[in-house]
Amino acid sequence: MEGYNASSTDFTFLGLFNTEETSGLVFATISVIFLTALVANGIMIFLIHTDPHLHTPMYFLLSHLSFIDMMYISTIVPKMLIDYLLGQRTISFVGCTAQHFLYLTLVGAEFFLLGLMAYDRYVAICNPLRYPVLMSRRICWIIIAGSWFGGSLDGFLLTPITMSFPFCSSREINHFFCEAPAVLKLACADTALYETVMYVCCVLMLLIPFSVVIASYARILATVYHMSSVEGRKKAFATCSSHMTVVTLFYGAAIYTYMVPHSYHSPSQDKIFSVFYTILTPMLNPLIYSMRNKDVAGALRRALGRFKSSHPVSGDF
């Protein structure tokens, strides 16, 4: 029994800051991305909930997407940045378990929500007359509840199994957070059956929502192609292409991490792909989905106008 240690001792992250020459630059870049993600998503939530012009199904779903993005980037990045500043790289067994659960729940909820948001856009463009019925307030809440249920189910199912394996005496996680594939490499037991179960879960959580996204945007593009307005066609194509770029980046990186055979992986590649969908995507989502939108720009101008009117600048000294 000396080959492993199943006690609740700390894990050690090898992290992203491996090279002294670039660690400062990486730290600064991730800090900027993290702050941008928090501010951009926070602004989106504020505008959507305070401006009546944004009280529509699309923006209602976007506000929940922003909330999820703020939550799950905050489960990973602050710990990483603080560890760099303090010169430590450890995380307790309980902390690793909590991070693993929160990450799986939040990212799982986003997988489902993005797929259902694509359906919302499909209905709005391809069936506009039925949109108020097909995307009623009740349907929107069902979409939100279904997304959270799917994500929570994934977290409650996979986290206890992942963290119940006996771990080897070396508890160095060659990653920057407690992601399942990196943690499982430390297990001193056969994980083949569990990895099969995880693969099936990934088919349900990744391939099916991603297929819904692709099918929805394919129908949207087909509808847009037959538009009589050239200007409207260009605008719709530009919007769809930017959305598809972010969605493909998000789903593609996750599919690589969880569904591509281990023989095609390396620790450095795993870290890079994880950065794409855990750190970059929460920053890009509000910028791509909303900040370029005229409705959001108008809501921002109105909010600034209300702020200026309530805080007039006096010219008297």
What is the compact description of this entry?
The protein is mainly alpha-helical and 317 residues long. Helix content is 74%, strand content 2%. The longest helix is centred in the middle third of the chain and has 34 residues, at 93-126.
Q: Can you describe this structure?
A:
Residues 40-289 form the G-protein coupled receptors family 1 profile domain. InterPro entries: GPCR_Rhodpsn, GPCR_Rhodpsn_7TM, Olfact_rcpt. The protein is mainly alpha-helical. Helices cover 74% and strands 2% of the residues. It is built from 11 helices and 3 strands; from the N terminus they run βαααβαααβααααα. The protein has helices spanning 20-50, 57-74, 77-86, 93-126, 131-134, 137-164, 180-184, 192-225, 230-259, 267-291, 294-310; strands at residues 11-13, 90-91, 172-173. Helix 1 (20-50) packs antiparallel against helix 3 (77-86), helix 6 packs antiparallel against helix 8 (192-225) and helix 8 runs antiparallel to helix 9 (230-259). The longest helix has 34 residues, at 93-126. The chain is globular, with a radius of gyration of 22 Å.
Fraction in beta strands? under 5%
E-strand count: 3
Low-pLDDT parts are 1-7
Rg (C-alpha, Å):
22 Å
| Count of alpha/pi helices | 11
Strand order of the largest sheet: 2-1-3
How are the SSEs placed, and which strands pair?
Elements lengths: L10 E3 L6 H31 L6 H18 L2 H10 L3 E2 L1 H34 L4 H4 L2 H28 L7 E2 L6 H5 L7 H34 L4 H30 L7 H25 L2 H17 L7
Parallel strand pairs: 1-3
Antiparallel strand pairs: 1-2
Helix pairs in contact: 1-2, 1-3, 1-10, 2-4, 2-6, 2-10, 4-6, 4-8, 6-8, 8-9, 9-10
Membrane topology: Multi-pass membrane protein
GO molecular function: G protein-coupled receptor activity; olfactory receptor activity
Main location: membrane
